[in-house]
Prior knowledge:
CATH topology of the largest domain: Peroxisomal Thiolase, Chain A, domain 1
GO molecular function: acyltransferase activity, transferring groups other than amino-acyl groups
CATH superfamily of the largest domain: Thiolase/Chalcone synthase
Organism: Paenibacillus antarcticus
Domain Chalcone/stilbene synthase N-terminal: 10-219
Oligomer: single chain
Domain Chalcone/stilbene synthase C-terminal: 237-364
Pfam family, one: Chal_sti_synt_N
Largest sheet: 9 strands, mixed
Amino acid sequence: MNNTMFPNISILGIGTALPAYRIEQGEVLDKLEEALQDSPNSVRWARKIFKQCGVATRYTCEPNLIAHGSTSRYLPSEGLNDVPSTAERMGIYKRESIPLALEAARDALQDGDIEGSQITHLITVSCTGQFLPGLDAVIVKELDLSPRVSRIPLTFQGCAAGLKAIQLARTLMEGQSDRQILIVCVELCTLHFQPSSEREALFGASFFGDGASACVIGAADKNRKGLFQLGEGHSVLMPDCSEEMIWEVGNYGFDLYLSTNIPKLLGRYLSAEMESLLAGNESPNLWAIHPGGRGIVDVIQQMYELRDDQVQYSRGILHDYGNLSSATILFVLKAMREDLASREAESSSGVALAFGPGLTAELLKFTYLPSAILQERTIDHVHS
Length: 384
């Protein structure tokens, strides 16, 4: 559907939240080296990936992760007797996900100057934990949403799910300008760190972090400032990539496998999808890239000859917070919006990209508008 039919569907407010415990990359590496002192090959691998992944700090909801190496139950050890079970990790997830989700949601509502009673749809997103009644039911109660709000949980869809939720919200808004859609993403990735010296486990432990993000999507009125107007987008399942990103439930949390071939595969398949999205138009100025890893940002920057300032938001979020799975894309968009507003930037076209298991890619066009007045002029031009 052509975006000119509904040009005022926008992100009205964005909120984020982080847990209390900060992880310094160097400290984690020190703990791993201590735990892996009998596995020199694993130590060399850990040093390499920790120094090359583009992360300096992250956050975790689990204080035991930052405990002394000999007392941390998540670090490699001689046995599995004291390693947290999946049930224990899910108990921590239930306890810790709720306050983070509520903080991010309240932040987004306040940022958009929207009351909870105005929300008509609630989309909750997470791939790092589950419980029932779910996060959606808790949010309805704690934020005084209508008990009749339409609740849509997106679970176990990986890093791409945050942008998938935005795309879904945009679809729900088409022709329904009275709707207000709240999206809440919460991911506690560090709960699934594995006490293993295997390369896959160490790779995942090098750059994932915890956090929550939220946004409100609706029809913007003339008083709105600093908007991301949502354009056309699509999702694609890339061929012959199903084994490159795997996330399975194990006895000691969720077992993650990430192939080092993912940046190369994106380089092979993403061009055709971008050509379809842009439909012959010029490459946009703004790029909100989900930093699933440093290599992903690197390959997209190279493919489209992007300037460093065009990928600064993605690299900055990766550096300061790590990969927050589905919550990350809203961290990137928030950082972008704050920078554009501080510079009093003019309207500019953009594209958001996120990637998940499958290998799935989510692609969405957007436009930054410093004022909804510009948006009204666009609508007037379309109808004239």
